[in-house]
Amino acid sequence: MNLLSGSIRRVAIVGGTHGNELTGIYTIEKLNRFPHLLDGYSFECMTLLANPKAIAANRRYIDRDLNRCFGNADLANPALTNYEDILAKEIAAKLGPKDRPQADVIIDLHTSTSNMGLTILLSSRHPFNLRLAAYLSALHPDVRVCCGIQCNQDAPMLRSLSPLGCTIEVGAIAQGILNADLFEKTQMLVRETLNYIDAENQGKPLSIPASLTVYQTLSSVDYPRNSSGQIEAMIHPQLQFQDYQPLQPGDPMFWTFTGESIPYRGESTVFPIFINEAAYYEKGIAMTLTDRIVLPTERA
């Protein structure tokens, strides 16, 4: 199928890319137990539990973050032989390859310890994705839409195996637990995504806003550290859980262990997301800074 035209034939719903994010895992378990929930669409739905060993261990990953293993160079590198690198190649064989994906749309389900609410992380700025995100954001006031620096198919995330689709990221929720409210909202977003795709397939596109607010990634910020690499400050109490809220130059950003405030020293207003994400401590990321932009969603 040419993804730039024609109908969607296959949609992949993925959970457990991170083994301790139970919302996506149990969403897939539910869909596998009650397959009739995926009946009646004009396309095939497939489900995938991406990282079985990490799921069994209730760990984010075994050897390496699976959701950083899908860059083109890594997938093509036979020297990368740890568990997640091999697994990524196997998943790419099922859903990819990127230039001829077998899954026309990928929906990858995640959770965050940050206060991300209901977030749609786009696979690309393809008009289909923008229209889908606009539809979802119009449905629920808590839905926000993000685009990473690598908002394309060379990104290392699983979602990059197809240009169409997204990651659904919900939070705040601790790793390794379930939250009924966020679980149900994830079900809603999956269901409405499938409904939107089905309407597109049948030539009955659903109504969407003419424009979409997108939080475009600018950069990531690490915690203040000493010469030995040890963290010397925490997220400031006024910034904690303030994902998507404007951060102005001079606003408090970090709080030292001696009780001193460290301000944001940028020159323009930004919108931090993934603030104090537990899984990002090892990556040297205290938060991601974004700009808020508006993109058109009109059909060509």
Describe this entry's structure for a reader:
The chain is α/β, with parallel strands linked by helices. The protein has 2 domains: 10-209, Aminopeptidase (3-Layer(aba) Sandwich); 218-290, Single Sheet (N-terminal domain of TfIIb). 23% of the residues lie in helices and 24% in strands. It is built from 6 helices and 12 strands. The strands form 2 sheets. A 9-stranded mixed β-sheet has the order 2-1-3-6-4-5-7-12-11. A 3-stranded antiparallel β-sheet has the order 8-9-10, with no helix packed on it. Strand 4, helix 5 and strand 5 form a beta-alpha-beta unit. The chain is globular. It starts with 9 loop residues before the first strand and ends with a strand. Mean pLDDT is 95; it is low at 1-5. It is an enzyme of class 3 (hydrolase). Residues 8-197 form the Succinylglutamate desuccinylase/Aspartoacylase catalytic domain. The active site is at 169 (proton donor/acceptor).
